[in-house]
Structure formats: structure tokens, C-alpha cells
Amino acid sequence: MKEIQSNKNPLIKTLKKLHQKKYRDQQNQYLLEGFHLVEEAHKSGAEIQIILVSERGQKEWGNFLTDYESICYLVSESILKELSDQPTPQGIIAVVAKDKRQQQLKKGAWILLDRVQDPGNVGTIIRTADAAGYDGVILGDGSADIYSTKVLRSMQGSNFHLPVITMNLVVAIHELKKMAVPIYGTELNKAAKQFDKVPKTNAAILVGNEGQGVSKELLALTDQNLYIPIFGQAESLNVGVAAGILLYYFKV
Amino acid sequence: MKEIQSNKNPLIKTLKKLHQKKYRDQQNQYLLEGFHLVEEAHKSGAEIQIILVSERGQKEWGNFLTDYESICYLVSESILKELSDQPTPQGIIAVVAKDKRQQQLKKGAWILLDRVQDPGNVGTIIRTADAAGYDGVILGDGSADIYSTKVLRSMQGSNFHLPVITMNLVVAIHELKKMAVPIYGTELNKAAKQFDKVPKTNAAILVGNEGQGVSKELLALTDQNLYIPIFGQAESLNVGVAAGILLYYFKV
């Protein structure tokens, strides 16, 4: 296996730039850390371009790595630490090509994210949509980039299980309507319909920004806007939790 | 208003230690950042011991601050930045005494946390329990400290709205059983009962550690263990989302 021992190696310096969205977009690639996620990428047929592994990792995952011998580099823990955004690096970091497949909308169950900005929320919602058996996730403009390390970590590999489409939400709603998919917005407004009064069905659920919720423009395009009742003194629910309640309500 | 301009001021140096649990426990006090949270502390009657405010904050919240004139310090942005764990400090940080009230368990709806370690998860679950109108939260040994800044931030003030009791969970389950509160554990095991097959009622819901779930010892003490079905390829749900689904299932 090839080796890189210096943090000043030009490849390492270049890869470090992938922590910035700008470079991920330019290069069409991203960093994926941890054996579990790299294995999920492998299983899904994602294009793994480079693997950096520590000595410890090489021993532990030697079998898996034989498939990738030609693109695998043995590196120091200090290099992994430099490329990781975690206090304790996980022994393996891969460079993976972004998913280039043109994903199509189809009749089914979807979740739409309007400017959800917290990476943990975006990742958690994609993970929940996967768990709940949804057909896919539509990320509107202004949502967190799914190739950031924080989103990748909280998705736990779900991006390899279901389509995550970046798309203007006005267009997406228009397309889904043509396929007769019911579209439910969400709002913090008791005048909206309490969610559990709506029949359970495959639907497109639209959730919004942490501070402002779904934009008025989009709420005006839905079939119905839903409200999760607040019984206590909290002002609102975390958007990841609200999405989870609705995703499961329509499915069980 | 008194002023502190030097980051080396002994008070500032002492307060900075409150980022460590050890000092919070010793001093029975914690740091609370942001006007919204300080206002929630005020409304709930919490003992606010010191307020540090920037010049900008003093202008914005002058009315509120008149009640606290004698314990209020005008400080530089740089001091707030030193005490904050956020990239952009919020203009106000209070030192608040931990809640010393002896909270009692009572017959009602509860959520129990078994070694939930991620501060964001602990905070989100407490916020959801508040929203869903639960009677309180019981934190077992090994869960994240609710007075850490991350938990405080994700609770969004819900700790001022409902009792959060730290207690051994074996004892808590025993007490709740004596009051005839049904106790539902959660597990990632299809042999458990699918949650929506159980009648909706005020109950105690027991959720567990991010990696290991609820301990076997505790699962053996419940009335019933519940399972949230996984329809897709995700291995599990985020514990904050799972808690949200169950908290609302039993309430709506």
C-alpha cells in the first residue's frame, strides 16, 4: 500500500479543502469518514476515489480494502486528524464522487425541506425518511449541503439508500401535483389542520426553516397545511422531531 | 451599571470554569446565554445571580435589566466571546442558580432517559416533552448534564417549564409502578410490540443510549417494550426523533 506520512503532502492539502462547499462543488467529490459510512458507500455502488487509512484501520478492515488497493493510502493518525472534524478520527476517510445520477420524481411518499439550515436537522430528517420507507427527499434552495461532514454523519448512510434531490420547491410541488401526490405543508398556526385529522396516505410533507418555518409562498401551493399541537409551554418543536412525527404518522 | 473590560478580571476567569460540569456541580450555578433563555429563567422565577451584557444588549434590553441593576455588569464583546461557546455571542450571558427544588414524581405522563449522551438529543427530548404536555423528564445516571450550554440551547427554555429530575431509573420505575403508571421501554427488536398497537394513555416512556439503546436490566422492569418499525434500510432512528414519535403518539 502507498504511504503518506507528511501533513504537508500536496494531496492532503488539496483534500482538506473539501471541508468547504465551494471546493466540493468544483471537484464533485466529498470526504466520508468512518468505516460504517464507507462500507455503505461501497454497497450502494458509489464511486470511491481515494481511501486514506491508519495502520490500525488497515489491520481492522484489510479484507474490505483489498478491493481498493490501487487507490488506498496508509497515512498517519495526525493526517486523519487534520482531515477529520471530529476530536477522535475514525481510522478511515474516503474521497467519494457526488452522486451524478439524475433522480426523477415519481408518485409516492416524499419529504420536502424548505431552507432547513442546521446540518444535524437535515441529516436526521433524511435518516428518518429512510427508516419510514419514503421514496425520497427533496432539498430546496437554502438547505444545508448534504455533503458536509455534519450532515453525512447524522444521515448515517441514508443518502445511499434513497434519492436526495436538490430542486426548486415550487417546481417540485408542481410536478408532484401533476402526479396527484397530496402535498401537506406544516405551520405553527392553530388555524391549520391538526395533523392527525388528515387520512393516512402516501404524501409529500413540506417542513421549513428552524426560525421561520415554511415560506408563505410555498404554504400557498399545498393541498393542506398541518399543525402539530403544542400542549405545553414550548413555542415550537425541533424541525427534525416534527418531520419524524409526520413521516411516521402517514406510514403506520 | 458596573463595568468589566478586561478578560483577565478574576470574576470572568471564575465564570469561565462553569463550562465544566465539575465546577457547575461545585458552585450549583451555570451559564445561560441569549436574551430569550434569560427571559424564560426570569419568568420561571429562577435565581439569576449575575448578568453580563454588552453595550448593544444594554440598549436593547434596558427595560428588562432594570430589575437586575445591582447584579448587572456591562462587559466587552470580547468577554462575552470568551464565555460563549458560540461563534457569535448573543449580547447577554447570565449566571443562574441550579434549580434546588425537590421535584416529586406523580401519577402522569413522563419520559425517562437511560444514558442519552448527546447534548442535542437530551435537549431536544426535553423540549418535545414540554411541547407534548408531559408532566416531566427523568434523567438516569450517565445522561448528558442539562446545565451544559449545548443542552440549554437545544432545550430552548423547556427546563423552566417542566420538572427535569435526575434519578436512578430503577428507583423511578419502581415509584411510577406504585402509582400505576404504565411503563413502556423501547427497543430495536421486531419481537417487541409495534408502538401503535398499544392503547394511547398517559405513560412513562423509556428511551436509551444512542449506540446501545435501553439497558437490558431496565427493559426487564417495564410493562411492555415497544418497537418503531423500520420500513427502509436505515438501521435505527435518532433517539430524539424516536422519543418525539412516541411522546406524540400517546398524546394525540
From TrEMBL, chains A, B:
CDD domains: SpoU-like_rRNA-MTase. Keywords: Methyltransferase, Transferase. Residues 31-102 form the RNA 2-O ribose methyltransferase substrate binding domain. Coiled coil: none annotated. It comes from the Bacteria. The keyword Membrane does not apply. The keyword NAD does not apply. GO terms for cellular component: cytoplasm. SMART domains: SpoU_sub_bind. Pfam families: MRM3-like_sub_bind (PF22435), SpoU_methylase (PF00588). GO terms for molecular function: RNA binding; RNA methyltransferase activity. GO terms for biological process: methylation; RNA processing. Belongs to the class IV-like SAM-binding methyltransferase superfamily. RNA methyltransferase TrmH family. PANTHER family: RRNA METHYLTRANSFERASE 3 (PTHR43191), RRNA METHYLTRANSFERASE 3, MITOCHONDRIAL (PTHR43191:SF2). This is 23S rRNA methyltransferase. It comes from Enterococcus saigonensis.
